[in-house]
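Input chain follows. Return structure tokens only.
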Amino acid sequence: MALLVVQVFLSGARGEALICAVLVALGVMLRFLVDRVYRARSHREPDGNWAVVFGLTCVGVALLWGVTGAVLYRAADDSMRLAVLALGCVLVQAVTFRSYMAPGPTMVQVAILIGFHAIAIAYDGLYVLIPVCMVYTVFQGLCIVALGKVRIRQMAAERETRRLLGELQTINAELTRANLRLADSALSDPLTGVGNRRRFEEALATMGRAAARQERPLSLLLIDVDHFKRFNDEHGHVAGDDALRHVADRLRAIADGPEEVVTRFGGEEFAVLAGGTDEAAARALAGRILASVREAPCGSPLTVSIGVATARGAGGTADIVNAADRALYAAKRAGRNRVVCHGDGDDPKVPETAVR
């Protein structure tokens, strides 16, 4: 279009050429200004308002282009008018390609561009080209409708894809939660809610490797409910289950550090693994546990015996269970309701039947 304006200016129609140059500049400035304002908009601003602005911009640019084409056609000589009409067709085709995104404003732009050229042709007396303009308008309209339908189908497909992705994310989240619940149930004791023996074995292996790698102490507390069989015989199994849950709750309340794991070791026995805890700290932890378990929920006296063992390095960790078990036997042999640490001097060879 700029070349045509220059050609018209050189051909002598300088006034018309200057008018066309101003119209072209206004069209470019309008597009540039709207684009800058749109990029600087707030993301919270409704898109509907900008759809209206976009439509009005399309109409305004089409009017400027249409007037420019009509003026150029009137000012050009016979040899240049064909080029002006070709330029008009190029503009119409360029606008039609945009109908994929905005069919409504595109249809208006096409009608305005062809309408102005038709007026210029009619003013020149070439009435035979009016039907051609009408057929061309219908053809472009059909193209716009076809492209618009493709866009509508694509938008519907995009909405369906987003819906399916949303459902898939929901299903994945539910599946993840179900897997976590399943993993938690596989590692939890159903009666007390603390970790089960499998959880103890996994925690011991993991914490043992960490202790060996970091050269930090690892302590194990084995807790046994004293005379639990007698308690069951006197108060019933329901009260016995309540007593075990009570002990588990106290253990969780006291051994609640990030490196402390509470599990049910088996029967009426519980275990507490404490990473980074030396023998003195483990003994103090066992003392707090011993003091917290004073009576069962039914009001009857309830005591525990605790064996403590502390190890450093991989070799010591491998024997920590046996060491804590021997300390627990020693605590029961000494009268129960007490804490014994491995290495306190009690005989580690007391048979199990003598203390249980």
